[in-house]
Design a protein that fits this description.
- This protein has 183 residues and is of the alpha+beta class.
- The chain has two domains: 3-60, no CATH class; 71-182, Calycin beta-barrel core domain (Lipocalin), CATH 2.40.128.20.
- Helices cover 27% and strands 46% of the residues.
- The chain has helices at 3-27, 32-55; strands at 71-81, 84-96, 101-106, 110-122, 125-136, 148-157, 160-167, 172-182.
- An eight-stranded antiparallel barrel has the order 1-2-3-4-5-6-7-8.
- Helix 1 (3-27) runs antiparallel to helix 2 (32-55).
- The protein is elongated and about 75 Å long.
- The two termini are 29 Å apart.
Length: 183
């Protein structure tokens, strides 16, 4: 289990226990039914709050060190396949919550979608690693079939992401993404 998920669960548990103690102190239950009711209320409030926090509110927590990179980017992909070097323009949408990140890249030939992604810190730099699958347009599917790949993006600032990728068909390449609009 990665550290973000572990921390999220620990904080959720602490909030639920704290709410239970508060509700117990306020209502002073005398029957088992009332104690269970306090526990259910505490859990319900915690689930709702933590769901909102995971999806939206974490962005406003200055103590959270998760990079905030969701938005719309335009970029160039330089790649080598079969001994040829080429370059493509791409549009990129990055959607992010506290515990997940999805990257969707579209070029004139393919769309790629994230299978799984995770932020790590390497040598003091924030890095996004994600694994993806490509979905080629039908007219390109023979020359550019479905591929699985992995990308490593260095996040030195949220307005420019640079990285490289490699795929199951031995394609390798470099990417430069420039933020064009915040999502």
């Amino acid at each position: 289990m990665n550290d973000s998920i572990k921390n999220f669960l620990i904080i959720s548990l602490c909030i639920a226990i704290g709410l239970f103690i508060l509700l117990y102190a306020i209502t002073k239950p005398t029957e088992l039914y009332d104690i269970i009711n306090c526990a259910c209320k505490a859990i319900s409030i915690t689930v709702i709050f933590m769901g909102l926090y995971e999806r939206f509110l974490w962005k406003f927590n200055f103590l959270d060190k998760t990079p905030r990179i969701n938005g719309i980017y335009s970029g160039t992909i330089e790649y080598e396949y079969g001994g040829k070097f080429e370059m493509k323009k791409a549009s990129i949408i990055i959607e992010q919550s506290l515990l997940s990140v999805r990257v969707k890249i579209t070029t004139n030939e393919i769309t790629s979608s994230t299978i799984i992604g995770n932020f790590v810190v390497e040598n003091g730099e924030n890095i996004l690693y994600y694994t993806y699958i490509t979905n080629p347009k039908s007219k390109y599917s023979r020359d550019n079939p479905v591929k699985y790949g992995t990308c490593r993006l260095v996040i030195s600032n949220k307005n420019e992401l640079r990285g490289n990728y490699w795929t199951t068909s031995q394609t390798i390449g470099d990417m430069i993404l420039m933020r064009s609009d915040e999502k």
